[in-house]
Structure formats: C-alpha cells, structure tokens
Model the fold of this input.
Amino acid sequence: MVTVLKPGVTEEQIENLCNWFSTRGLDVHISRGHYQTIIGLIGDTKKIDTELLESLEIVEAVKTISEPFKNANRKFHPDDTVIDINGVKIGGGNFALIAGPCSVESEEQIIEVAEKVKAAGADILRGGAFKPRTSPYDFQGLKDEGIKLLLKAKQVTGLPIITEIMNANHLSLFDDVDIIQVGARNMQNFDLLKELGHTKKPILLKRGLANNLKEFLMSAEYIMAGGNENIILCERGIRTFETYTRNTLDISAVPMLHELSHLPVVVDPSHSGGMSRLVKPLSLSAAAAGADGLMIEVHNDPKNALCDGAQSLTPEQFKDVADKVRKVYEVSR
Amino acid sequence: MVTVLKPGVTEEQIENLCNWFSTRGLDVHISRGHYQTIIGLIGDTKKIDTELLESLEIVEAVKTISEPFKNANRKFHPDDTVIDINGVKIGGGNFALIAGPCSVESEEQIIEVAEKVKAAGADILRGGAFKPRTSPYDFQGLKDEGIKLLLKAKQVTGLPIITEIMNANHLSLFDDVDIIQVGARNMQNFDLLKELGHTKKPILLKRGLANNLKEFLMSAEYIMAGGNENIILCERGIRTFETYTRNTLDISAVPMLHELSHLPVVVDPSHSGGMSRLVKPLSLSAAAAGADGLMIEVHNDPKNALCDGAQSLTPEQFKDVADKVRKVYEVSR
Amino acid sequence: MVTVLKPGVTEEQIENLCNWFSTRGLDVHISRGHYQTIIGLIGDTKKIDTELLESLEIVEAVKTISEPFKNANRKFHPDDTVIDINGVKIGGGNFALIAGPCSVESEEQIIEVAEKVKAAGADILRGGAFKPRTSPYDFQGLKDEGIKLLLKAKQVTGLPIITEIMNANHLSLFDDVDIIQVGARNMQNFDLLKELGHTKKPILLKRGLANNLKEFLMSAEYIMAGGNENIILCERGIRTFETYTRNTLDISAVPMLHELSHLPVVVDPSHSGGMSRLVKPLSLSAAAAGADGLMIEVHNDPKNALCDGAQSLTPEQFKDVADKVRKVYEVSR
Amino acid sequence: MVTVLKPGVTEEQIENLCNWFSTRGLDVHISRGHYQTIIGLIGDTKKIDTELLESLEIVEAVKTISEPFKNANRKFHPDDTVIDINGVKIGGGNFALIAGPCSVESEEQIIEVAEKVKAAGADILRGGAFKPRTSPYDFQGLKDEGIKLLLKAKQVTGLPIITEIMNANHLSLFDDVDIIQVGARNMQNFDLLKELGHTKKPILLKRGLANNLKEFLMSAEYIMAGGNENIILCERGIRTFETYTRNTLDISAVPMLHELSHLPVVVDPSHSGGMSRLVKPLSLSAAAAGADGLMIEVHNDPKNALCDGAQSLTPEQFKDVADKVRKVYEVSR
Done:
C-alpha cells in the first residue's frame, strides 16, 4: 500500500502518521520527492481502513497494490482448477453443458427434459426447486419435492444435477445434489457462503447484478476460506442502463476472470438476455470468449412453463446450439 | 394488461391466443384498430408470464398497467404510515434521526457514543453487531455480544436501538431490539424477508445497490405479505459508473417512493457517499427532498474505528448536522 | 399509442382528453373495461409528448407501440443492407476486417502498418487524423496532414480507408476517404449527423457510451433522413459500474441490432476492453455473435504509440486474430 | 505517478524501464521493498500512456496522483469563482435562478413567460432556440429567429438570457446572448469547446449523461485552456439502471465539484427528473446541497408546449419553488 502525502506536510505530521502505522504492525518506507512525500507500507495492510486514511487532511491519495483475494487468485495458483463431477469435468480445457428447465414442475416434465437434453449433448441437468422470485405472489418452486424429482431424473438418465440453495437451513436436502447453485441475489449472503465453505460440494456461484469482478471473487473467497475450493464462477449479465435486453452479458468478464483467477467460468445466456432468441448468439460468443461451459434453460413446452418460459429453448433448439457451441469452442482455442 | 398484436395476425391466431388467456381465468377484451389488434386482459394477470407472452411470434408488445405491489402501494392506502417506536415516530410529518457507530466495539464505546448522539439530538441509536463485509478477512462484528452491548446502551440512555440481521436463525437474539435492519445485500434474500414478515418488529429495509424502486417495494411486499406492515424504506445510494463517490445517492427516490408508497422513507448519507465530508450536504438535501429521517454514522474516534471510519462523523459534527437538518426539514415542508 | 386512464375518471374528462387528441389529428378508439378505460390512438402519434400525457392527473400510463425509427427499421426494409466500398462488402453475409493504428503518426508508420495488416488479412485501413481526446493537453492528431498520409497508404496498398470526422467544416478534406467515422462522443452531435446525411459517403457510426439501442438507431435515422442510407453501426462498449475493463462490450447489441435494423453491425474490440490482451477473445465472441466485421487497432510499435498503445495489437498478433475470427464466423453461421 | 513492479523483476528489466522513462524526460525515484519495487516518477507525466505502462509484463500497477485538470482545479485557485452577468452573480455565496421555457415558441409566449418568471424571482431567462432532439422528426427549435425573440424578451424585462449552442458556426448569432449553454450531448464535442475558449462569454457547461466528474472538469478545461475562464458547471442527471425517473440526479456531484473546482455549480432539476412534480423536491435538495443556482423549465401553458412540457412548471408553481429554495439555501449555509 502506498500513501501519498499532500505538499507542505510537516515532519511532525509525517512522524505521527508513521507512528500510527507502526502501532498497526506495519513497516514504513518513506520516499521524499521534490514536491511530495510517499509512504510505502509493508505487512498486513488489511488492518488499515484505506478510506479513513484517504480522508485524513494530510493525505493526498492512498493506493492499494495487491488484490484482496488469495485462495481464488491465479497468482498463487497458476494452474486452472478442474472441477470433476462423477467424471464430468469443467475447466482446464474441459467444456460442459448444463441444461434443463427453470423450475422443476412435475416428474414427467423433468424426466422428459432430462432425457432430451442428454440426447442433445448436455452433461449436467439443471432445474429449480427453490425459486427466488421478485414478487411474493409468484410461484416459489416445488422446494424439497422438486429436489426429489431431480434426483429421480438423475437416476433415470445418469446426469449429475445442479439446483439452487436459498437458505443454509436447507443444506441437508442437498446431500445427493451434485452441484449447489448460489443465485445472483445471494452472491453476498455471507452467512450462506460461510456455511457452503464447510461442505465439500462443488458450488456454482453466480455473479450479482451489480457486483464487480473483485466483489465476485471475494464471495468465492468466502467459500474457499472455509476450506471448499470447488467453485465454478458464473457470469449471468449485469444491470446497466440498456433495457432492450433484461441484463447486459459482460462477455469481457470471461477472459478477465480467467486472468485473475484459476477457477472455471461458465456463462448463463438465458438469464443474461431474457429472450430465447438471444440464447444462441450469446452461447456462441461465450464459447468463443473461452468460457468453460454454459448453463442453458430448456423446457419441453416453453409456452406453458411456470417460470421464465420466455428465455427457454425447446430441446430441438438446444441441440442446434449445443452442436455449434462445441465447434466454436474448438476453433477458438 | 394490454397485448398488442402484430399487423397481419389471422383470426385463428387471435382466437387461439384468447383461448389460452381464458384457460388462465382472464376476461378478454378485443379492440380491432385499422392496423393492429389490441387485447385487453382483466383479472389476475399475475398468472401470465409477460416475457413469454412478448416472445410469441404474433405479439408486438405487452403492456402491464398496474403496479405489482399491493400492501405497499399508496393507491390502496392513501395515508402515510407512521411507525411508532416507544413514542419515537417516523413518517407522516415526523422526522427521526438515527445515529451511532458502524460497529459496536466495546461497552465504553457504545455507551459514550449513545450518550453523545442523544445529547446532540438523535432519536434512535444504531450500531452494527453482525457486519456484512465484502472480505472474509475483515472484522465481522461482535455478533450476539454486540447486541448485548447495544441493549446496555439502550438501558443507560433510553434510546430505542436498531441493528442489522443477516440470518433468520439469529432472530431470537433480536427480541429486545426495537428496529431490525435488513442490509442492501440482503434486500432480495427472500427467505429472510419471509421470516421477518412473521414478526411484528419494525423493519428498516435498505435498497439494494442495483435494485430499482419496483424491486425495492416488492421486497417490502414480501415482508408485508406475511402480516408485518411496519416497514421503513431506506435509500442508501445506488451503483453507477461514477467512482468519485462510493455510491450515487438517488435523491429522486425520496419523492418517488412517497408517491408510490405510504411507507416512511429515510436516507443513509454515510454509506451513500462513503466520506464523512459528504454527510452534511447529503443530509441537508435528503431533508429538503422530504425524507422522514436520516441514519448517520457517528463514532467517538473515527480514526480508530474498526470499520467504515472514513464516513463517520464525530459527535460534534453530528450535532451541527442535526441542528441544520431540522431547520431545512421545516422550511421545506 | 395506448393511453390508460385512472379508475374513476369522469365522462367529461374523457371527452376533454379525446378532443385534445383530435386537435392533434389523431383518431381515437375508446375501450371501456370493468375498472379502467383505455384510449387507443391511431395516426401520427409523434406529435404527442408522451411524458406530458403521462403527467396528466387522469392518466395512469401511456404505452407507445411502434419504434420511432423508420429508415433504419428492419420492419420496413427486411433485407440486410450491404455496404460496398470498392468491392469490399460489409453486411448480408460479408465479413470485413478494419485494422490500423489509433493515430496516424508519420508516412513510414502508416505505410508499414497498412502493408502488414493487408498481408495479415485486413480489408480496410483505419487511422486517426483528428483525435477526440478527453484532455486538451493530449496529442490531438496530425489533422489534415494525417488524412494525406492515409491517402498515400491507400495508394500504396489499395486498401480503402476510414478515418474520423469531428467537425462538419472539415468535410471537404474527406473527399477521397472511403468511410467516414463518427465517434462515440459525437453520436448525438445532430448538426454533424445532418451534414453527413447530405453526402453519399458510407458512414461508420459508433454507439455513444451511454446510449441505448433506440437512441443509436435514431442517430442513424438522422443521417438516413437526409438521404444517405450507407450506414455501418459500430458497437464499442458502454459505460457501466464495472471498472476492470475500460468499457463493457455489449455483445447482445449485435443480435439485437440485427433484429431491429437492416444495417450492418461491426464491433470495436480495442476500445471496448481497453487492453490488447482482451482484443482476441472479444473479437472471437463478436464474430460468433454474428457481427459483420471488426475494427481493430494495430500498431507496428505499440509501446511507443502516441495514443492508445495499451489496446493495440502488433501486426503478428493481428494475423492470429484475423485467421481465427474468420473460422469462428464460418462455423457460427 | 507511481509504478509498482511485479515480484521477481530483474535488475536489467528495472534499468530498461527507467531508461524508457528518462527518454521521456522524467526523473525516476526507485524504492525497493522486501517483496516489490516501486518507481516514483517526477516531471510531466502526461507524456506517459498509463494504460500502456500498466500493460507491460513487469508492471503490477500504475497509480497516478495528481488530477489532470489545472485551470479548473481548486488546488491552484482556492477562491470560488464568481460569474457576473450584468450584475447578476453566480457562485461564491451568490445564488441565481435561471428560468424559462424549454423552447422559444413565439414572441407572445417568451415575453409572457419572461415577465412572469421575473416577477416570481428569476434572475436569468432561459429559452431554447436550437434544440437537440433524439429524433430527426421532432421540432428542432426556431433557431436564429428564436434568439431574436429571446433578445426582445431581454429588452422588455431586463433579464440576462441564456440559450444553447449546437454548432460553432452559429457563434456570431450569440453576440448579444449573455450566457452560452453547451448541452449534455455536446459536453465532449471538443471542437465546439475549443471555439468557445476563444470567446469571453460565460459558458454554462452541462454534464454528459455518462460522464464522470473528471471528464466533466476536463471539458471545462478545454474551454479554459483557450483563455475563457467564465464557466458555470451544470449537473443535470446521469444515466443509470433506474427508469422511474428520466435520469438520476447526482446530488453528491454538487459538493464534490465544489471540492475539486472553484467554478460555480448549478443544477437542472427539470431534465434530471423529467417530471414537473419532481422539480420542487429536487430544487430544494440542490439548494440544501450547496448549489449556486438552479435552471428550471417554466412554461405559461405546459400542456401545449412544443417540447418537454411534462417537466415544465407553471409560473405559479415556479414562484412557490423560488421562494422556498431561497429559504433552504439560507438555512443550509
């Protein structure tokens, strides 16, 4: 951390500040320039409130140097992390397709969709059991019953399953779920993240609508700090002024996250655009940008889906996307 | 809800669509214009997925008319809600000042601050016990111990207290807390909101960083749908491209929320700006815009605060703000 | 346009409003529902100030139906527009690569870069002569001298050239320029757009940093309304809260613009990300999303470039990108 | 400027980099820490492309210290600038009210409005002659005829006048205009700014919808660099994800601009909110935050205004706002 002092600061003021740093266990390194003095700080600078420091009258600016995430940081872990779910791999050159309905609605529905997406090339089955909805009056999911139906679909098709958790108290219901999803709205539900850090389950962590990449990686860090390093990052669009699409897919996040972190990165083209006709171009662009996988909503009957039918593909549309996506992934490497 | 069909749609297609609406229990009202046909829908249109409808090939546009929030809506509840906490009133012409440290740090600290902010004109004491922090390595609050210290400060000063909840499992710890705060990051933690709906405690609900006013009111609706109508809305800045300030205080939200809802609206000028020197101008502007109160961070020793010292006022600075704010509130009415 | 009235509006109020519409030459179509009355308006509704209408006390909501752009609208022009520049085609299945330095610096530099990008597969040469810079103290370009050097490079290599205009008074300098670029900051410099509408030159119009797709197409409409239909739209990133990248490439804009308009859409991956190492993944993702071309900054000596060296590729890096981009474009179609 | 090198950089690499700085005329100051080396740079660092520097393999981070604006910077000009227009003062404790219609429509209209806003307390008359409109099909203003009508209103009432320029070629038409307005869309029309720098006219510069405060001040710097220091900054709302209001008034910009710059700051509450009923609360909040003035749209017949009637006050409403605003300004100081 570097603290730049204002011109005209006295020696006594500098000394006071350095003493204050010392009481916080930091080594101080002073560089006196022609016009300004710069204080370099060495040690555990996390103990310093940089905004407070910046607000001191004698301080011109404070510049932090190192990224605050450690376990998720590629600097300290140069090789790609590969998540292995019963033989299905994500990351490090392994591309995985996650597909299924927004909500689990019935045994027939989930088994039919599971069989069709498997035939079309999906590696993992998704399906919502607990549904976060903006309105309390909207369908909230089949809950534990939904998880049971997913497990049946897993048994029938052999596909690993992923579903979203909204409450750490439900954790025991997820014992046989293969990947636990944390939704965008819970990306900074720190108590939930801490609980998930004490499991060994792979976690798919979605980026919050208004969270930057640093905050996203800090939330991964919350889980990893508890000992669970099986994290899959998921870009799903951010909130911007543009309203033609539901959210704005931040495609640059894919290469940036790969640079900053060793964790695999998948993209959700269904929620990003909010329209089924955007799923194909966004899927192809994500594969071209180097994503390690995609999570796509597929429904056997989108017009009658209980939730988010507008962004769901039919199984036939999904097959077309899946085939092209794998080709684009190959030629882009 | 109004559905506008594309030009050239056939009678058969219109009939099919109207049947589909009927199976969902809606009355249909068709207006045939020169170029386009418009279908008005009457009944519980919440059962319709508008985005799906919009995605149909024969549909040009779907226009919803009524706001999706009911209990929070001023239309159905024209009079201002007044929240009464042991005689301290917020809303309907009653202005309240909430003040105290970001974090409770020790008995001495919280009692000293409590006494000073009371003397300076505060009506309610704030103090963080459970702290949501972006980094898992930052101070996470004194937790249940912090609540006990707040209760001591309440006993000593008589000030009602407010503190943040992060986990519904902690609810029993809040039995003697006067107002429960839901932080910006948990504004869409729907399971937590539902639990709070089953209490009778006043809830101060902070707006999420990327949430629009409709989503904000829908989260209030989650609590109200459970039977708890004691909600205080809190604007605390939104995330924009501007980085000179930590967040951008959306001052227009104050009059807009008053128009849309009968619930009281307070402003947090400390988190909005992230700098102590912005607290005064933002406080005055909030009072001028008609806010029903302010929540301000005050610390006896900002330079050594464990958290967010940069945005804390000293008790002396707070007194100056409190005095001016009340004057501005009066002349602005 | 549909105007929804509030419940409880009187017949007299409805009649007054309908008379007001009639004086503006509109046909009125009234639908009386159980609770609310809806007025459909037919005719040239552009004469109505919708925001004023919305602000009337008896009006609940106003819903516009048709897009305000006409010439740029795919509805009225279903086939893709193909821009032909001396045999180089953009749009309608024709993919074009535009490459060259941010700024023209010298004859040697621009000719060397031109020859190298041509050899690497570029179809068109770019180079800045008039440079819009945030600071008045930064290099502002070689101006008319820069255009002369570009014309030399065109003569030597045969590549058509594109360069930016900042002032309609300079138009005569662009007589031999093949495509005139309008920069993001001038996207709503309406006087400049009008002047360009009176030429026949192809115009590459960049999207403004904070402009939505409707405003973008309305700016194209300004040029087209003057009679010049040779417009190439260019997505170059929008401003969001995310600061890891200079701007956020709105990749969804590519398929959305193709849906809304018949005009070709190219992407500028250099300015979007602001970093040379993002150019390749963003270029591939743009081609996968269906872009009709790319505009990429290439410099023979990025470290010593007078402007924007950080985002420039070397000619060798450009060749690698160009080769892969064409493959991705093919497999994505 | 401070350049932080990555761990493990060799002495030779450091030497090469320092030589590169030296060729650019900078003094180099090396601080070797335990883990990292930091290079301080003294001299005219504007010659360094910081993004290029950041992109070098051996560089961890680059931190700039000083603000890039000079003439507009309060550091070098601690006293408030006061703009004096025929005795009407703005800034340095002088509060001015600018009022008038969005567009000049006729002689009767502008004179009637001018007389009424003067009687209600306005100091300066505004009125649009050249109108920037998103659509080429919307009313574009009376142009030079509009300016003549404004000058008549000035003659009749004695009020100084302000109107917007869209094209430097029109400058001669503004000879008798008292303040020239640069609209938000032209904030980075650098050629226009340069031309205005060569006049001595007071310029009211509006902030662009997506421009941060630094860019805003850099645009002021463009004018000041030409010799014209009579700049009034105008905050008029920024573009965010929130759509309940047309734009989001960035109220924090008022105190922040006062801290960064000595130039007066006025607020436009009419365009910020886009609704007449928001003008009063936003005006009061701006005065409370320390704005040096307000620019408010007032029309004698808002329902029939040719442009932006939705956000215009009647003269009676304006009088109420004017009276309260001055009281709030006084008690907030």
Observations:
- The first strand of chain B starts at residue 2 and ends at 5.
- Chain B touches chain C at residues 2, 4, 27, 29, 31, 33-36, 38, 40, 42, 60-61, 63, 65, 239-241, 243 (CB under 8 Å).
- Residues 125 and 161 of chain B are 5 Å apart (CA to CA).
